[in-house]
């Protein structure tokens, strides 16, 4: 996995600054506009089931964008990122089981719990690098996974069902399909905007500099560890937001949200779309989930076909879908 990420991040596609700037503005705008107009297709007669798929895509796109922040710009290959997804989801489920079903309580708890977990695990993990970092993030995620499977009071390995979505100041506005759809879209745009502001700022330049040469950054007076830790915490909080939305979307919480397979899927989404672009993570999540849904319609053994397709993408599209499109346009 680390070799795949390395090849994806070092094989740059030549492009003029003006072209890169245009793509960085127009592609996200087109993506968000397409998401915003999707509910109109349902009113025009499209099966509402597809709208549910788009909601799932937006939720996982939030998680993928959060991972791209530390992977694409910080070079941190986290194989346990799904732990934050599960923490955000369980914040909803556990509080709801105790009668606290309002989003104004659940969301801050989800973000705070994700931030604490990210800070504690990041403080240890970021003192390692390479394969050691990959394995230690995987270990922490598996610890969280097995802890939740052992909590029989909250469903254990079977998970727990939510009887209703979170309320907002006592209102059941999220129970409306369209309102929840646009809440997810708003969360995606906000997450993207936060990450974009970070990567184009001085903070982002230091983060990218530490990815290229941490020793040089230390020599000019910056502490890469602190910048990476802040990025790791922010990334964890944004993924916790995705977990909060996922629990409300499925109305179900399970330890499977934290499994290493889910972390692997998030990595694939980021690499598939285009590493280090943010909007590439959204494209990757869209392509991954649509392809998964399409193949599952043909056979229950769709993973046998899906795996080789991903290998072909890694071989022939080194910069992912976004890089291939940009090269084609040039």
From TrEMBL:
Q: Would the keyword Transmembrane helix be found if you checked this record's keyword annotation? A: yes
**Record keywords, A-Z:** Cell membrane, Membrane, Transmembrane, Transmembrane helix
Gene Ontology CC terms, in alphabetical order: plasma membrane
Gene Ontology MF terms in the entry = branched-chain amino acid transmembrane transporter activity
Determine if Cell membrane is one of this entry's keywords: yes
Pfam families assigned to the protein according to its UniProt record, in alphabetical order: BPD_transp_2
Q: What topology does it adopt in the membrane? A: Multi-pass membrane protein
Cellular localization per UniProt: Cell membrane
- The source's domain of life comes to Bacteria
Which residues are listed as membrane-spanning? 21-42, 48-71, 78-97, 103-126, 133-154, 179-204, 266-290, 302-322
Q: Indicate what this protein is called per its UniProt record.
A: Branched-chain amino acid transport system permease protein LivM
Q: Which organism is it from?
A: Lutibaculum baratangense AMV1
């Amino acid at each position: 996995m680390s070799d795949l990420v390395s090849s994806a991040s070092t094989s740059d596609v030549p492009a003029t600054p003006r072209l890169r700037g245009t793509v960085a503005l127009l592609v996200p705008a087109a993506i968000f506009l397409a998401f915003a107009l999707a509910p109109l297709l349902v009113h025009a007669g499209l099966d509402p089931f597809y709208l549910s798929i788009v909601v799932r895509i937006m939720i996982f796109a939030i998680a993928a964008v959060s991972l791209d922040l530390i992977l694409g710009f910080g070079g941190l290959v986290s194989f346990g990122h799904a732990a934050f997804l599960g923490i955000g989801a369980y914040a909803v489920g556990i509080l709801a089981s105790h009668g606290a079903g309002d989003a104004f309580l659940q969301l801050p708890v989800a973000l705070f719990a994700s931030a604490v977990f990210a800070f504690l695990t990041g403080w240890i993990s970021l003192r390692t690098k390479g394969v050691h970092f990959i394995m230690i993030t995987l270990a922490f995620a598996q610890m969280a996974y097995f802890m939740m499977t052992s909590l029989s009071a909250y469903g254990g390995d079977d998970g727990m069902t939510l009887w209703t979505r979170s309320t907002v100041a006592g209102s059941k506005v999220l129970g409306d399909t369209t309102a929840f759809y646009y809440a997810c879209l708003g969360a995606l745009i906000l997450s993207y905007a936060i990450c974009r502001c970070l990567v184009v700022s001085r903070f982002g330049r230091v983060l990218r500099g530490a990815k290229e040469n941490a020793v040089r950054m230390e020599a000019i007076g910056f502490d890469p560890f602190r910048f990476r830790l802040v990025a790791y915490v922010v990334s964890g909080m944004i993924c916790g937001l995705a977990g909060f939305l996922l629990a409300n979307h499925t109305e179900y919480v399970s330890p499977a949200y934290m499994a290493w397979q889910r972390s692997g899927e998030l990595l694939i989404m980021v690499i598939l779309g285009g590493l280090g672009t943010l909007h590439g993570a959204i494209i990757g999540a869209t392509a991954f989930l649509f392809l998964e849904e399409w193949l599952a319609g043909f056979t229950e053994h769709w993973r046998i076909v899906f795996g080789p397709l991903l290998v072909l993408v890694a071989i022939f599209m080194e910069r992912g879908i976004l890089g291939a499109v940009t090269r084609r346009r040039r």
